[in-house]
Write a structure and sequence with these properties.
Distance between the termini: 15 Å
CATH architecture of the largest domain: 3-Layer(aba) Sandwich
Helix content: under 10%
Length: about 600
């Protein structure tokens, strides 16, 4: 007898993109549902939005995607901020506001992103964590369509999506800005998929580069950097653009207006890390978010895989600069460090330090002499708005940073709606301005004034000079339900089932890889490191009451029957909060992919 599980009801605080209607599973009966558990800070969640778009188009009259927004940061619980994010990222399906994490818990989600598939009769048939599932989902949807059309339980027709009114204005969710040699400002107008050149006042349009359509030539561009004149002369362009959602870099000539692809295959990164130089146009990048000229090359904040990369415009090569792809906070020599969605870069006036806004750890960090340091920040789950000594200060998901001539650093503290200042001399953090709408970048101009890219207000704002406040705000820690585990020996099992029509691909060695670490490191007595099996014995320290297990799993598959079968790589990073509990279980299961249809 087949055991079938009814999908839990979608009870949230409210709905977006439905014309004000609250949807129930009964309203959606007859459709195949994909529930996308996401939070708008999460780069992997943004990748999944892009993976789902082709499926929504292909199966439009049979498939309904429902975004379930289950927030990590305090700012993400704000319904106004959620509505802005839905517009910013072009979410064209209904979204339920799961601000209290009720739906998250009902569906037993453990990671952002998680996908759940519900059949036309309302039964849960699949769940999977992470990104890279588009091919498997397509095969599963084909099977469900065939089965439920034969049974008469599939009802084709329009879905419940109701588009919001089209926005107006010069800018829409601008991302980053730079000052051009003549004094004009160049801004990435992210939600309109273009660049905008403005006069120095930041309000008058000089020209728009791009036609405002996703993918032509930009898709949600972010970071910009001016090349040194000698490099620009050889390269043939003077600005490099982080074309974030296209996973590419583009060169822009301010003289001719020409846009040129200079790096990135257009495929999102799904590989392993090495220390070699690669042909720039053949390399797979992952959501490049910001750029800086440092150490005689363009450094890329590769937000999608928690690393820094480099790009050489003359040799036309790219490679890894810092980081291992593990999403966490660990300092040290740059090949071995951990970062979490680096999103802002700026170089000190003397060229010695590269400052980094490491958004998911709510941290300000810097590289100097090949070593990564943390100035402010405590980890993935600690954030807030607290000034004072750097060791105690807190940010909340900062996206931008600007090094000032006096050695201090301004930070676009995005989810606190503030601009903060870190002074290395005193090791203190202060608030320069607050009440801003998701500032995403800070730009120190040549005349000494400071411009803030106030992204959710769709404008550039100039800071009043000399204003510094002291803020003793709240401290927050993500209230994500922890896993209670027994001390001592625990079995960590990552469950993976290949998608329909695929098999594990062992032609290049083991098809699976598992990397385990912990924060604090003392939480793990045994079991840290990398293996080629998805099950591992670990030993938890009974003297460490709680912490976070960092788990990275990946599995390689290929198509079974095709003559030239495609290959696929499924990967997920988990930061699993752990509480040591003598009554807890001694097994931790994590689902990389589970397809049960």
């Amino acid at each position: 007898m087949e055991f079938r599980v009814r999908a839990p009801e979608l009870k949230g605080r409210g709905w977006l993109n439905t014309g004000g209607k609250a949807l129930t599973l009964a309203d959606l009966r007859g459709k195949i549902l994909i529930l996308d558990f996401w939070t708008f800070c999460c780069i992997n969640c943004l990748h999944v939005l892009d993976e789902l778009r082709p499926l929504e188009e292909k199966y439009g009259d049979a498939l309904v995607v429902i975004g379930v927004h289950s927030p990590k940061f305090e700012h993400e619980r704000d319904p106004v901020a959620l509505a802005a994010a839905v517009e910013r990222y072009g979410v064209h399906h209904p979204v339920v506001d799961d601000g209290d994490m009720h739906v998250w818990q009902q569906y037993a989600a453990k990671a952002w992103p998680t996908l759940a598939v519900v059949d036309p009769e309302g039964y849960l048939v699949a769940s999977m964590a992470g990104e890279g599932h588009a091919e498997g989902l397509s095969r599963l949807i084909d099977e469900l369509i065939t089965r439920h059309e034969a049974n008469g339980t599939l009802h084709r027709g329009d879905g419940p999506y109701v588009p919001p009114p089209a926005p107006e204005g010069l800018l829409r969710f601008p991302g980053k800005a730079i000052e051009l040699p003549g004094g004009n400002l160049l801004v990435s107008d992210s939600a309109r998929h273009s660049l905008v050149e403005l006069t120095p006042d930041g309000e008058t349009l000089v020209r728009r580069i791009g036609i405002g359509v996703r993918g032509e030539p930009f898709s949600e561009p972010q970071g910009l950097v001016l090349l040194p004149p000698s490099v620009a002369e050889v390269a043939g362009y003077d600005v490099v653009v982080a074309d974030t959602v296209n996973h590419q870099l583009r060169g822009f000539s301010t003289a001719t207006g020409e846009v040129t692809l200079v790096a990135g295959s257009g495929r999102p990164w799904r590989s392993s890390v090495d220390d070699h130089a690669h042909d720039a146009l053949a390399a797979d990048l992952s959501s490049p978010w910001d750029l800086a000229w440092f150490d005689e090359k363009v450094v890329i904040a590769m937000a999608g895989i928690h690393q820094l990369w480099w790009f050489d415009p003359i040799k036309r090569t790219v490679g890894v600069y810092a980081g291992t792809t593990v999403e966490a906070l660990r300092d040290g020599p740059i090949p071995d460090v951990w970062m979490a969605q680096p999103s802002g870069l700026s170089v000190s006036a003397d060229g010695v330090r590269l400052w980094i806004a490491d958004s998911e750890t709510s941290a300000l960090r810097w590289v100097e002499d090949g070593v990564l340091h943390t100035a402010v920040g405590q980890g993935l789950f600690d954030f807030g708005h607290v000034d004072g000594p750097a060791a105690e200060a807190l940010f909340q998901h900062p996206l931008g940073v600007a090094a000032l001539p006096d050695g201090s650093v301004l930070v676009a503290d995005t989810y606190n709606g503030a601009v903060r200042r870190f002074d290395p001399a005193s090791n203190e953090v202060s608030t320069v301005d607050s009440g801003l709408a998701e500032p995403s970048d800070v730009l120190a101009l040549g005349d000494g004034t400071v411009v803030v890219v106030e992204s959710a207000a769709h404008r550039l704002t100039r800071l009043a000079p000399g204003v510094v406040k002291r803020v003793d705000g709240e401290r927050h820690r993500t209230e994500r339900p922890p896993s209670h585990l027994a001390p001592g020996e625990v079995t960590l099992d990552v469950i993976f089932t290949p998608a329909p029509g695929q098999k594990l691909d062992s032609q290049f060695g083991s098809p699976v890889r598992l990397v385990v670490s912990a924060s604090p490191a003392e939480l793990l007595l045994e079991g840290e490191g990398t293996t080629t099996e998805l099950s591992r014995r670990i030993v938890l320290n009974p003297d460490v009451p709680k912490g976070v297990l960092q788990v990275v799993a990946q599995a390689a598959t290929c198509d079974v029957d095709a003559e030239y079968g495609a290959c696929h790589l499924t990967r997920q990073d988990w930061g699993v909060p752990i509480v040591i509990d003598p009554a807890g279980p001694n097994r931790l299961p994590l689902v990389l992919r589970g397809l049960d249809a």
